[in-house]
């Protein structure tokens, strides 16, 4: 049973995380220090060590919170489209992923930029578990699509041997699913295109040519949809 002390501790941890995020957004990742957070909260820096053992632990906890928020937004987006419309589900999740990233560029950079290092503590496990939940959102959707509308994939012996062994390790040791390696390859191909394209846009690497990258993003979605045998539907206006 949760005690009053437990509730107070949880509330303080939540306030620390919210303060860290506010500093991240307003001043950038370098400004997110224990001293800065303590100053904002009217605490001493040593007092924060009762809640987080290190700066790395604190950032990892923030990473976990952000992954959880992003995952929640993707799952909420899925509820806005018909359950049996696989094309609409894949498109709405992809578009919501981009929308969150563009609305929260510094948070996105913390999640998908340079990895945040931290000691192997429970907070690290928390961050990794939250990241896995995000990955599962996409993988579960991909598995549902494969079960309902199988799409063309290469046979195992058609995959480059060096890639084939990596895919096998990822499938068996990380995902723990019973799927052809070609499905795993296709999943990673789609994820690399989606996350890579969003990252280029968020980090400003498309500005040399594009003022508005949305049409290029939609073009990428049409190509991914064709690869997966899905019907592409343009985003609604307004």
Automatic annotation (TrEMBL):
A Pfam family per the record: TetR_C_33
The protein, known as: TetR/AcrR family transcriptional regulator
SUPFAM superfamilies hit by this protein: Homeodomain-like (SSF46689), Tetracyclin repressor-like, C-terminal domain (SSF48498)
DNA-binding region: 33-52
Domain HTH tetR-type: 10-70
DNA-binding listed as a keyword: yes
Keywords: DNA-binding, Transcription, Transcription regulation
Signal peptide segment: none
The organism's taxonomic lineage, starting at the top: Bacteria, Bacillati, Actinomycetota, Actinomycetes, Streptosporangiales
PANTHER family per the UniProt record, alphabetical: HTH-TYPE TRANSCRIPTIONAL REGULATOR RUTR, HTH-TYPE TRANSCRIPTIONAL REGULATOR RV1816
Keyword presence, Metal-binding: no
Annotated organism of origin: Actinomadura chokoriensis
């Amino acid at each position: 049973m949760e005690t009053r002390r437990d509730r107070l501790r949880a509330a303080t941890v939540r306030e620390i995380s919210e303060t860290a995020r506010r500093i991240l957004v307003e001043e950038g990742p370098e400004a997110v220090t224990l001293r800065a957070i303590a100053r904002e909260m009217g605490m001493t820096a040593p007092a924060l060590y009762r809640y987080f053992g290190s700066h790395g632990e604190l950032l990892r906890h923030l990473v976990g919170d952000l992954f959880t928020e992003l995952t929640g937004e993707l799952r909420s987006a899925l509820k806005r489209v018909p359950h049996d419309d696989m094309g609409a589900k894949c498109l709405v999740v992809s578009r919501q992923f981009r929308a969150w990233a563009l609305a929260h560029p510094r948070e996105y950079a913390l999640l998908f930029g340079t990895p945040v290092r931290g000691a192997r503590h429970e907070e690290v496990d928390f961050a990794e578990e939250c990241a896995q939940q995000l990955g599962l959102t996409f993988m579960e959707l991909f598995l549902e699509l494969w079960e309902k509308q199988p799409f063309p994939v290469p046979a195992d012996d058609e995959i480059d041997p060096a890639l084939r062994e990596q895919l096998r390790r990822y499938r068996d040791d990380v995902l723990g699913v019973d799927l052809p390696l070609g499905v795993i390859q296709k999943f990673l191909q789609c994820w690399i295109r989606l996350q890579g394209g969003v990252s280029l846009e968020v980090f400003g690497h498309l500005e040399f040519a594009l003022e508005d990258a949305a049409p290029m993003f939609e073009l990428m979605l049409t190509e991914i949809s064709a690869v997966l045998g899905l019907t592409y539907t343009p985003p609604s206006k307004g």
